């Protein structure tokens, strides 16, 4: 399901495929999010920190719990660029390219060379900028808390999943903190890998989740239903017709060509495979404006990308999101991370912040576990995911550099309250958690211990 991944394009407004990341949105407005890029959407904070609700009277900030996805990146592994070049080269040999298709080859070659030079799985220049800007906003928001940390000796914990792009994101975030506030240098712990909390669905105890992905009859049935829709083939044909001749597409559909890799099981042997492949490259080049002037929107129009974005979202919804009503198999292990966050707040004396860097595989389940609105609502068996049946969108739940932050405040009596941010926007806890007062974004810490565990 590697390539499975918007009719709602008008909801927030769209520009082009290449997204500029700004330090913060305009006051009182959501940042624009390009939904048709699905989980590869570059990051935008969703609320100016200056607009956050003030804490209850007598409470001052004492600690920040920060969990972020890695920043925008290159392809996570070799394959898509290789297969796309094979496809294009075969079409060129057979005179099966349109004038627009002729322009695709040099772009694919450049994309391949960039990956050879920088390395698969690396964060891009945009990914570095996303974490730099997030670090800058964190310091601005809690300037006294961090400026007083050197005098009090309070430390900063740093953990990541153990994967290169997560470690690189941690480094980008921390290095920018130190650029802005060098006095924090001796307070920052050496970054450590922690799969138990930050890659929980791939570590010990995840056997049930692995069985679900490979064998659950509900999952297999709904994904087959979604991927075999006639519209998928129709949209693939429309996308490819702009790049390849009718005769070449027909031969591809008849199974005359099969493009494979010597180092992976991925293959392209149909128009749908080819369209999903191009959609994958369309998405990833949006993460790489610093590495090339791709203009990949020339080759994949938004109205074609929209359908494959919906399929991609279905795959994420059932694989990492809230999935089926009455079953928490996709997100129950996020409890590992929640337990760690609560434990660090329970004994915050020596730490001013805990910074964690991970992946969509953790951010999507975490949002579902916490009951964040539009990120946690499952569907009944028999109701297939679609943009009509669900409000869940990976572009909003887990874009690149997606994050959940808990801000802890304490009063002189030692009581602690916590506020949660999702994509730097104030959000409510679900799971029947009760705020300090109706409508407040603040929760007593003991209430969170009760309702989250």
Question: Layout of SSEs?
Answer:
Elements: E1 60-69, H1 80-93, H2 99-118, H3 125-141, H4 143-147, H5 149-152, E2 155-160, H6 164-180, E3 192-193, H7 195-198, H8 207-215, H9 217-227, H10 230-241, H11 246-253, E4 259-260, E5 267-268, H12 271-285, H13 302-319, H14 335-346, E6 351-358, H15 360-370, H16 394-397, E7 403-410, E8 416-422, E9 425-427, E10 442-444, H17 445-452
Parallel strand pairs: 1-6, 2-3, 2-6
Antiparallel strand pairs: 1-7, 4-5, 7-8, 8-9, 8-10
Descriptive notes:
The structure is a single chain. With 453 residues, the chain is an alpha/beta fold. It has two domains: 31-73 and 126-220 and 310-452, Rossmann fold, CATH 3.40.50; 78-119 and 243-300, no CATH class. The protein is 42% helix and 11% strand. The strands form two sheets. Strands 1, 2, 3, 6, 7, 8, 9 and 10 form an eight-stranded mixed sheet that branches. Strand 2 (155-160), helix 6 and strand 3 form a beta-alpha-beta unit. Helix 14 runs antiparallel to helix 17 (445-452). The protein is globular, with a radius of gyration of 23 Å. The two termini are 33 Å apart.
Number of helices: 17
Count of all domains? 2
Mean pLDDT: 92
Structural class by sheet pairing and helices:
alpha/beta
Helix fraction, binned, reads: 40-55%
- Radius of gyration of CA atoms, rounded to a whole number: 23 Å
Identify the quaternary structure here.
single chain
- In whole angstroms, how far apart are the ends? 33 Å
Proportion of residues in β-strands: 5-15%
Question: CATH homologous superfamily of the largest domain?
Answer: Phosphoglycerate mutase-like
The CATH topology label of the largest domain is Rossmann fold
What is the number of strand segments?
Answer: 10
What is the helix/strand order?
Answer: EHHHHHEHEHHHHHEEHHHEHHEEEEH
Dominant shape: globular
The CATH architecture of the largest domain would be: 3-Layer(aba) Sandwich
**CATH class value of the largest domain:** Alpha Beta
């Amino acid at each position: 399901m590697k390539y499975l991944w918007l009719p709602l394009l008008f909801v927030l407004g769209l520009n082009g495929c290449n997204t500029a990341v700004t330090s913060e949105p305009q006051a009182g407005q959501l940042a624009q999010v390009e939904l048709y890029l699905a989980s590869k959407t570059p990051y935008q904070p969703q609320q100016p920190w200056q607009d956050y609700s003030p804490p209850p009277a007598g409470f001052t900030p004492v600690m920040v719990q920060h969990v972020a996805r890695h920043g925008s990146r290159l392809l996570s592994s070799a394959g898509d660029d290789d297969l796309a070049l094979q496809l294009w080269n075969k079409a060129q040999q057979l005179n099966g390219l349109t004038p627009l298709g002729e322009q695709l080859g040099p772009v694919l070659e450049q994309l391949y060379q960039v990956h050879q030079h920088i390395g698969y799985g690396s964060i891009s220049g945009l990914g570095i900028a996303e974490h730099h800007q997030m670090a800058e906003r964190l310091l601005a928001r809690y300037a006294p808390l961090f400026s007083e940390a050197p005098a009090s000796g309070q430390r900063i914990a740093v953990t990541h999943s153990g994967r290169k792009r997560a470690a690189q994101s941690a480094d980008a975030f921390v290095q920018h903190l130190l650029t802005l506030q060098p006095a924090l240098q001796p307070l920052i712990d050496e970054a450590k890998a922690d799969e138990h909390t930050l890659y929980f669905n791939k570590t010990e105890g995840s056997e049930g989740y692995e069985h679900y992905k490979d064998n659950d009859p509900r999952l297999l049935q709904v994904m087959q239903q979604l991927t075999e829709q006639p519209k998928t083939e129709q949209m693939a044909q429309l996308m490819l017709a702009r790049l390849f001749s009718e005769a070449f597409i027909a031969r591809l559909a008849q199974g005359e060509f099969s493009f494979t890799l010597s180092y992976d099981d991925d293959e392209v042997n149909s128009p749908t495979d080819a369209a999903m492949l191009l959609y994958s490259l369309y998405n990833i080049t949006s993460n790489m404006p610093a590495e090339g002037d791709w203009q990949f929107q020339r080759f994949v129009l938004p109205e074609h990308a929209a359908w494959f974005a919906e399929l991609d979202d279905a795959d994420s919804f059932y694989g990492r999101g809230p999935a089926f009503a009455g079953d928490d198999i996709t997100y129950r292990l996020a409890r590992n991370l929640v337990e760690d966050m609560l434990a660090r707040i329970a004994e915050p004396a020596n730490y001013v912040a805990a910074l964690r860097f991970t992946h969509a595989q953790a951010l999507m389940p975490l949002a579902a576990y916490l009951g964040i609105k539009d990120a946690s609502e499952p569907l009944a068996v028999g109701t297939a995911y679609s943009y009509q049946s669900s409000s869940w969108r990976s572009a909003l739940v887990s874009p690149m550099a997606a994050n959940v932050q808990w801000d802890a405040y304490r009063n002189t009596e030692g009581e602690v309250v916590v506020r949660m941010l999702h994509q730097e926007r104030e959000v409510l806890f679900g799971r029947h958690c009760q705020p300090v007062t109706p409508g407040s974004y603040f929760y007593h810490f003991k209430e969170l211990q009760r309702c989250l565990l």
